[in-house]
Amino acid sequence: MTSTSQARSYGGWRRSRSAGLGKLDSRQTLTVLAAVLVPVMAGIFIDQAVALYTAPLSLLCIAAAIAQRDGMLLIDIARGWARWRYADWRTHTIYLGHVAAPIQHDGALPGMLAPLKLIDAADPGRGRIGVLWNQRTGQVSATLLLSPSGALLADVDTVNRQVAAWGGLLARLADDITIRHAVVSIDLLPENGSQLADHVASRFDPAAPRLAAAVMADLVAAAPRAASRVAVRLTLTCDPSLGATSRVKLPDAIASLLSSLNGLGVAAAGAEAVKRASATDLIRIVRCAFDPEAESAPAGWDELRWRDAGPTYARERRDRYDHEAAHSTSWVLAEAPRQRVPHDVLLHLLSPGRYRRRVTLTFRALPRLVGAGVVESEVNAAAVREEVRRRARRAPTARERADAERAAIGAHEEARGAAIVQWTIYVTTTVTRADELEEARREVLQAAGHSRLRLRPARWGQAAAFAVGLPCGVYPSDG
């Protein structure tokens, strides 16, 4: 049967913007107005000399509120640098575990992973599952290990249905008020390319017909040597306190999480749930992320505890994260594609490379009432900017017109039942030798460019960006 459907394109995402003057948002506008008024009021009520002294400082504040680098305001960059420098001065960027003396408590992982406690829970009729409990926020997380079917050989109708099913899955997350966020991580682990040859050689029968042997030899010779092992997982995080009128006990929170996890329709979205990650699976995933050499360990994982999942040494630097004998660097999405894109836009970023790579997509589906308020405020902010331009007799730019159109389209789709989802992408590459890090960075940036993404380095936040991709329920805006 031949499909007559047309391949769809996707777009309409936009960065949230509040009302402000011109291209400024409300925070920038207030900063600029305050910086202008301070020297003016000083000159009126105090002295002209005071106004002259405060004018340079006001100009510096205006520049910091307007100027950007890699899509970030200079004032935010300066704040991140100051916080990191303070943490580095307090040696909070260095982690040493299991070195001087054994640690007797479970909170033995670095940084944002420290409050996590691993619970080996039982789900009646479904076996055991590993649940991570954040003792600081009260949130609980569980992970599905997935096997994506892929869309390269699928027909157009199948791809359209799978993308629509994924949109429906995100919409269902908005209907469950206890769900905080969902994180999808894709680990690309490069292999030496000899797996196929080794597999065939181990099963080769010397008595096989010569034609069959020749065909298999030709297939092995023609197979690409560059290969990778792909591991996909979906981590769901719930906050039992949302919508609750009283304190929720931990067993009830875990039961609510497992109910939500079991109800996810990932099969319709083109992925099969291989299994639900057990406590041992979570320990192995986290440990191998910190120490890639641990991948080769054949057994013994059942004997490890959660505190063994972390590194014995880790240090966060400005543009990289050193852990064990490995080095990682991470990026955050700075700008999504401005144009509409096909379903396989991320193919280059998710293709095998020479170095380990982890691509993480985070999703937070806003509750229906919250989403309606967000899109309404976005439309109102666009209207305010348009009125300011009209009074200033300035014609809108093409980008401003497109932004206003996307805000209106988003409000229309939300009114028809679509969910409002906040999302972003994190990319982490890991090498075992520091001199390979620069080449690994070029590889990631080149792949991101082909996927029409603009990434910015997670400067002074490398440890947090690294932790987001782990199946631990870490979400940066949760603090």
Gyration radius, in Å: 26 Å
Contiguous runs where pLDDT drops below 50 for at least 5 residues:
none
- Roughly what percent helix? 25-40%
Mean pLDDT, all residues? 84
Q: Based on DSSP secondary structure assignment, what is the total number of beta strands? A: 15
Helical run tally: 12
Helix and strand composition category: alpha+beta
Order of helices and strands: HHEEHEEEEHEHHEHEHEEEEHHEHEH
Major sheet details: 13 strands, antiparallel
- Write down the overall geometry: globular
Give the strand content: 15-25%
Q: Termini separation (Å)?
A: 52 Å
Transmembrane segments: 24-44
Keywords: Membrane, Transmembrane, Transmembrane helix
Organism: Nonomuraea maheshkhaliensis
InterPro entries: SCO6880-like
Could you characterize the architecture of this molecule?
There is one protein chain. The chain is an alpha+beta fold. The protein has a domain of 329 residues. It is 38% helix and 22% strand. The chain is built from twelve helices and 15 strands. Strands 3, 4, 5, 6, 7, 8, 9, 10, 11, 12, 13, 14 and 15 form a 13-stranded antiparallel beta sheet that branches. Strands 1-2 form a two-stranded antiparallel ribbon. Helix 1 runs antiparallel to helix 2 and helix 9 runs antiparallel to helix 10. The radius of gyration is 26 Å and the shape is globular. It starts with 25 loop residues before the first helix and ends in an 11-residue tail after the last helix. The mean pLDDT is 84.
